[in-house]
Amino acid sequence: MAESPATLIDGIAAERLPADDRGLAYGDGVFETVLVHDGRPVWWQAHLDRLEQGARVLGIAMPAAAAWRADCDALCAGTSGRQVLKLLLTRGSSRRGYAVDPQGVPRRIAQCLPAPPLAAADGIGVRWCDLRLAAQPRLAGLKHLNRLEQVLARAEWSDPAIAEGLLCDADGALVSAIAGNLFVVRHGVAFTPPVDRCGVAGICRQYLLGCGAQVRSLRRDELLAADELFVCNSVRGILPVTRLGDRRWPIGALTRGLVARLARAEPAFAVEW
Amino acid sequence: MAESPATLIDGIAAERLPADDRGLAYGDGVFETVLVHDGRPVWWQAHLDRLEQGARVLGIAMPAAAAWRADCDALCAGTSGRQVLKLLLTRGSSRRGYAVDPQGVPRRIAQCLPAPPLAAADGIGVRWCDLRLAAQPRLAGLKHLNRLEQVLARAEWSDPAIAEGLLCDADGALVSAIAGNLFVVRHGVAFTPPVDRCGVAGICRQYLLGCGAQVRSLRRDELLAADELFVCNSVRGILPVTRLGDRRWPIGALTRGLVARLARAEPAFAVEW
Questions:
Q1: B114-145 burial string, b = 16+ CB within 10 Å, else e?
Q2: Contact A98 B26 (CB under 8 A)
Q3: pLDDT score at A2
Q4: In this complex, do B100 and A178 lie within 8 Å of one another by their Cβ atoms?
Q5: How far is CA A155 from CA A122, B22, B101, B267, in A?
Q6: Which of B3, B9, B15, B16 to mutate to test the interface with A (most CBs of A within 10 A)?
């Protein structure tokens, strides 16, 4: 069994949560994975905003921002280097059945975990996933706790040389990687698929849209024709894709420019190459 | 907060489970809700078979049937009347990330809960849900822990006179009720939609298919044209639908025949009318 992470439940140190939590029963909740750098959470407000938006869609009362911040400080203050702070908000305990108890009390969970590495100088290898993401506009964009599609997609390979899987929807449109958003660079512009039918509206994706990247529907052949390709998420930053089957890409000028710009904005993402 | 149910985790009495369980993190598991009547689980083998099938699809090792049975006996032996035994199988604890640890140890959870009532003599009222179920053939039919669609659909109303919601897929085809399968009776035959793209392959549905009911794609207008209509699940049995908006149905001869046949086969489902 994995070593238990440092965990706070409703602000109190605890390794276990009540077995009648609806997060377990139904995946009834939302979560965030926040990069913490030298004790400071990166893109904190953006993470809280997305958590609140997800809670609003699910009809779960959002705890005060100060409570989340206190969790962050209690778990991460004084740490050095990069950590991951995982925040979960569930609808809390309830009796059996899908109906929501209007008197129910949401449950706040925070965990401090080791951070995964940033991208190496040779980028990452990816593969296509067979699994197709289902379209559910009511949940699209949210980082909710129903993640079996991601688990099944990630279980399609075990080769450690492959870091990510590329996911399409049932119509064959590109959506994202498994644990990150996908960007296709063509003629000097970075494009990323919409996430209004499936996928997650990533925080790093949002940052890059503010840097001039654009949302556009993309098909598999457009990915293969890309000049550059990268995946991103809020704990690993920008991960240039250099290998997909027999196809090879360089880490191109636009990707390098965005990596450098991100590192200036957030030193936590500074890479060695 | 709801009173904690009697719970066994891996056979040991416990009210809390490790906060790093993948059932919480990703809904990475499957479950069953088993009716227990005078201490005896109803349709036990069918529930275990479905649990095992779901575990196989997810790649989770299925605990021995004897372990589940011991949980059932420990929680329910000697009880009288009707109880619900909820069984959950999760992939257990793991580090962060979707990748499955091949050394991971699944977690077995069993809870004893109060049973909901059987149908009253005047049947149940239902309504249409706005939410459309997403099509995911890889998960269809399974009783997995990703149930946010059901939670959102059930949150569409609070009128206690309405017991169930009717769900369609994105193409407008009927799928099921929220917590049960749906049967439409026409010209003396009970039809129920396929569950190969979304929905759950219910145990009571399976029983009724053995009684002559048939699988057929159905549309909303066919439901409105039904001679009789009912919902079923394995803890409440057959629930005749008598009200949908302004539409009224009698509890017809075919439904009454199936209710009587089910009560003969499983006395736990004997109703007073």
A1: ebbebbeeebbbbbebebbbbbbeebbbbbbb
A2: no
A3: 43
A4: no
A5: 24, 14, 10, 43
A6: B16
Residue to mutate among B17, B22, B24, with most A CBs inside 10 A, is B24
Q: Which residues of A touch B141 (CB under 8 A)?
A: none
pLDDT of residue B5: 64
Q: Do A147 and B2 touch (CB under 8 A)?
A: no
Q: Do A146 and B148 touch (CB under 8 A)?
A: yes
Considering only the C-alpha atoms of chain A, give the largest distance between any 2 of them, rounded to a whole number of Å.
56
| Among candidates B5, B23, B138 on the partner chain, residue whose Cβ is nearest the Cβ of A20 | B5
Which chain A residues are Cβ-neighbours of B178 within 8 angstroms? 98
What does the mean pLDDT of chain B come to? 96
Degrees to nearest 5, angle at CA A81 with A76 and A83: 50
> How far away is chain B from the Cα of A85, in angstroms, using its nearest Cα?
11
In this prediction the pTM is: 0.97
Minimal Cα distance from B83: which residue of A? A96
In this predicted model, what pLDDT tens digit does every residue of A62-73 receive, in sequence order? 999 999 999 999
pLDDT exceeds 90 at position B273: no
Residue of A nearest to B25 (CA): A145
pLDDT at B192 > cutoff 60: yes
User: ipTM of this predicted complex?
Assistant: 0.96
pLDDT tens-digit readout, B16-41: 999 999 999 999 999 999 999 999 99
Q: Three-state secondary structure along chain A?
A: CCCCCEEEECCEECCEEECCEHHHHHCCEEEEEEEEECCEECCHHHHHHHHHHHHHHHCCCCCCHHHHHHHHHHHHCCCCCEEEEEEEEECCECCCCCCCCCCCCCEEEEEEEECCCCCCCCCEEEEEEEEEECCCCCCCECCECCCHHHHHHHCCCCCCCEEEEEEEECCCEEEEECCCEEEEEECCEEEECCCCCCCECCHHHHHHHCCCCEECCCEHHHHHCCCEEEEEECCCEEEEEEEECCEECCCCHHHHHHHHHHHHHCHHHCCCC
Chain A environment of B25 (Cβ under 8 Å): 31, 88, 145, 147
Which residue positions in chain A have pLDDT lower than 50?
Answer: 1-3
pLDDT of residue B172: 96
Cα nearest neighbour of A151 on chain B: B98
Nearest chain A Cα distance for residue B63, angstroms = 17
